[in-house]
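Can anyone check this?
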Amino acid sequence: MRSASKSFKIPVPLLESVEHLRQPGKPLAEYPSTNAFVIGLIAYAVAFQRPHGLTAALARLPASDQDIVHDFLLYVVRNEIDLRELLPKPATAEALLELARQHSFNHKA
């Protein structure tokens, strides 16, 4: 395969979420590696070109807000929570952040 080495920083809660979802019986189990999953995401985005409003808006949030959302997403994955039931359609970064803040406030360690 023709590849270029690139270095990316992936927030630990997101990486842990992917690893959890790659376990047998989970939605990402068919990917042979985390690298293959990331390549799959890029290929999908390139093949089906459309705006990524939610994730682009999340990327523009301050790092502290991104941390809140990333921690919440790990909690969601580990507890098999269906965010489709909790977020408006279409989902927005603002709604996800608000839900994450509510969770963070209610579940302080």
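Reply from J.R.: I decoded it. Helices lie at 12-21, 34-47, 53-60, 63-78, 93-106.
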